[in-house]
Every structure is written in C-alpha cells, then in structure tokens.
Amino acid sequence: MPIRSPSLEIKTSSCRFSDVQPTSWQKRWFELCARWSSSTELVDYSGLAAFICWFVWKSGNALLFNKSARDPFQVAQTTSIDFYEFKEIFRQNSLFSIPSQPSYPISEVWTAPLEGLLKLNINVSFNSLSLTCGGGLVLRNHLGRPIKIVSIFFHSVGYPALAEGLVLKASLCLLKDWGYHHAIVEGDCQTMQRLQPSVESLFVVMDDISSLLSDYPNLSLAWTPIICNVVAHLVSKKALEAGCGDLEWNI
Predict the structure, then answer these.
(1) Would 163 disulfide with which of 41, 46, 56, 133, CB 3.0-4.6 Å?
(2) Which range has the worst mean pLDDT, 86-100, 137-151, 190-204?
(3) 159: closest CA among 185, 196, 198, 105?
(4) What is the CATH number of domain 118-249?
(5) pLDDT tens for residues 61-82?
(6) Based on the number of CB atoms within 10 Å of its own CB, is 122 exposed (0-12), middle (13-18) or buried (19 or more)?
(7) Please, which contacts does 241-249 make with residues 24 or more away whose CB atoms are closer than 8 Å?
(8) Which of 166, 110, 133, 109 is nearest to 238 (CA)?
(9) CA-to-CA distance for 170 and 185, rounded, in angstroms?
(10) Pairwise CA distance, residues 51 & 211, whole Å
(11) Domain boundaries for CATH 3.30.420.10 within the chain
C-alpha cells in the first residue's frame, strides 16, 4: 500500500525577519563587517569571500560530475592567488579609483634575505585529473634582484603532497648544481612546515630532502603565505599549462 506524504504548508506571511535568529557563522560575519573601517576593506574582504564561495562551488561540481576530489589546501591557495590577480588586473584596467596599496598587511610581502644569502622561492601547481605538476623557482639576492627563474614539470604524480616533495627535492638539487650553498628555500606548501611524511610513498623523497639538508647545513627551509609567493606561483602555473619543464628564463 503506497504511503502518502503529508502535505507541507508554508505560511510566509506569518514570518517576520526579526523572528529569524542568525546562526553562529552569520553572527561572526556581521561582527567582521562591523570591524571593517573603510569601504576599501569592505570591497576586499567581501570580494575574497565571494571568490571562496565560487571556488568551493567549483570544487563541489568537480567532485559531483567528474569524480575529482580536490585538496582543500590547494583550493584555498588557488582562491587567494586568483583573487589578488583579478584585483590587480581590475585595478590596471578600471576607470574607477582603486588604491594601489596592497589590501593585506604590509608584513605579508616578500622579504629579501640578509646580505650574503640568497632566497629561492618555490611553488607547486597540481592537476588532479592528469596527475601532473608544475614547479616554479625564483632565486633572488639580498637586493631582491632575480638571479634565476626556472620551471620544472613532473608526470605521474599521485597526490599534492608528493608533488610538493618532488619540487622541493628538485629545488635543493638545482641549488647544489648551481653552487649556491648559502640560501633559504621558501615556499607556501605544507611540506615547508613539516618534513615528517604522512604517506608511505613520501618516505623516499623526504629522506632524500633530509640528506641534502644535512650535507649542506647553510641551506634552510622557510614557509611563507601564498600572497608573498606570487611570482613563483605564476611560473608553476605556466609550467603546468605548457606541460613541460626544465625551462630557464633569461634575466
């Protein structure tokens, strides 16, 4: 015997906006809005929030329609960098007046190393469909002048953490080949924060990285926010799009 669902009647006229209790995240959002001290901050933060919602929606569609699960950390990275790229393009091509100062704190910009040291910024772009990754490497001196800009590319990379490990290892090997043994390797990936592998296939790569660091004690690793790593990110994206690596730009 079929079961008949009870009818659902919605009386919108009896509902007042004042009766609706905001959720905890809505309260937090209202608090943040109240703290924004200028219209510029409001545009920046609301724009970034819109980008986050858009990229989360795109990731959900990728999982639903293409069975492609995207790494949340990679989604957050892509969202942030694409928003600031969009903002910069809009600023350069818009008739409206937009301040040229960065909307993020002044401390969150690329900083030069001390005199006598070099800094190698690295970034990884990963494609979960083709299982390929591109790496961007930008080497600068203490004056901030680029010495080398290099892209690398890897096939058959199973997951983002392995891509990060491979690019980091390749970066250390290149510094060794170039003869630069007093340098800081700086990146925005999780590998820069922890060398303890969480997946078995990472053990070999991480062991090689640890060996390289022990052989060259004047090489060190440092983590930086994605917004401080824009140039390396653009190079890694180009390497991934081109599908080839081992390219070096003339400075």
Answers:
(1) 133
(2) 86-100
(3) 198
(4) 3.30.420.10
(5) 888 887 878 777 777 767 777 7
(6) buried
(7) 241/134, 242/134, 242/151, 242/153, 243/132, 243/153, 244/153, 245/134, 245/135, 245/151, 245/152, 245/153, 245/154, 246/150, 246/151, 246/152, 246/153, 247/150, 247/151, 248/148, 248/149, 248/150, 249/149, 249/150
(8) 133
(9) 11
(10) 40
(11) 118-249
* Per-residue pLDDT tens digits for 101-144: 444 443 467 899 999 999 999 999 999 889 999 999 999 999 99
3-class SS string, the chain: CCCCCCCCCCCHHHCCHHHCCCCHHHHHHHHHHHHCCCHHHHHHHHHHHHHHHHHHHHHHHHHHHHCCCCCHHHHHHHHHHHHHHHHHHHHHHCCCCCCCCCCCCCCCCCCCCCCCCEEEEEEEEEECCCCEEEEEEEEECCCCCEEEEEEEEECCCCCHHHHHHHHHHHHHHHHHHHCCCCEEEEECCHHHCCCCCCCHHHHHHHHHHHHHHHHCCCEEEEECCHHHCHHHHHHHHHHHHHCCCCEEECC
Residues in CB range of 11: below 8 A, 6 or more apart? none
List all residues 6 or more positions away from 155 whose beta carbon is below 8 Å from its beta carbon.
Answer: 131, 132
Please classify residue 29 by burial: count the beta carbons closer than 10 Å to its beta carbon, then call 0-12 exposed, 13-18 middle and 19+ buried. Answer: middle
Q: Which of 100, 109, 111, 139 is nearest to 235 (CA)?
A: 139
Residue type at 150 in one-letter notation = V
Which amino acid is residue 160, in one-letter code? Answer: P
